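Problem 12. The chain below contains 307 residues. Write out its predicted structure in C-alpha cell notation.
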Amino acid sequence: MDFLSDNYPSFPVVATIGFFDGVHLGHQFLLRHVRETARKNGMKSLVITFREHPSESLNREVKPQLITTYEERIGLIAENGIDYGYILDFNQEMARLTSNDFIRKYLYKRLNVKILIIGYDHHFGSDTSNRFEAYQASGLKYGIDVQLAPQFTLPHYDHISSSTIRKLIQEGDMECANRLLGHPYSFNGTVITGHQIGRNIGFPTANINILGTNKVLPKEGVYAVKAKVNDKEHLGVANWGRRPTFELGGQPVLEVHLLDFNDNIYSQTAEISFMKYIREEKQFSSPEELQRNVQHDIDEVNLFFSV
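Solution.
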C-alpha cells in the first residue's frame, strides 16, 4: 500500500474513512467492498485514516486503550489489498469541520475521490447528527457518489465493534475476540532479562517488555500463545501477571515459555499472539507446587493446539 500526499492524484479513487482499530471482520468486509468497487469501476482504492485516535490528538491526557498500534493497523489495512492510504493528523481545526467541509476540503479538492463508501454505522464531521442522506447530498455537489456499505454480521453477533472486542480482551475471552478480529490479538515486544524464575524451576521463559503502549491489556492469567521470533512461529504458554508466588509485586510482566525451544533470544523482538485463556494467576505454597502447575498448564496448551 502506497501513501498519498496532499497532491491531487491524477487517477480517480474509491475511498472510505475511519480509524479502523483492530481491523476486525467488519472492517475487513468494508475494505473488501471498497477494493471490489474500485476494481469494477477501473479505479484505485483508498483508505483515509488517522495517525492517532482523535480523542488523544485533542487531549494528551487521554490515553485510549487500543487493539492495534498505528503500525499494526496500517499493516493490516495493507494486507486487505488496499492500493493507497492517506494519513490525517487530527487537530482542533479538523474537529471543527462539518462533514460537508471535510468532503469538499479533502475528498474533492485533494484526493480526487469519485466514490465514497461509508460504513453502515460510521459518522464523521462536527455535525455528528448528520446521517447518510446528508453525506450523499454533500457528495452530489462535488461529483462524488456516496454509497452506504451493507452491514456485516456473524451468527450471534449482529454488530461487531472495536469496543466489543476490547471488552472481550479485558475479560480474557481471547477465542471470541480473535474470531471477531479475524486474526489473533498480539503484542510486539523486546525480550528482556528477568529474574530467571522459570529457568530455576525447569521452564525457562522469555520476558517480553510490552508496557508503554496504548494497547488494551488482557486479563491477567495464564494463556496459550503463539510466538513469532526471527520469522519462525513457536507454540508456548504465557503468564501475564505479577508472580504472586514470589511476592514480586509491581507492574505485570509477560513471561513466555516456548515449547520445544530453548535458544537464547535476549534483545530480540517477539510477536506474542494470545490464543486462549487457561486459568487465573495463583499464589502457590512453594516453587515445587508452581512447577507441577506449570506442567499442567503446558499439557493444557498442548491439548488446545492439538485439536
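Discussion. The chain has ten helices and twelve strands. Students who got a different answer should revisit the alignment rule from Section 12.3.
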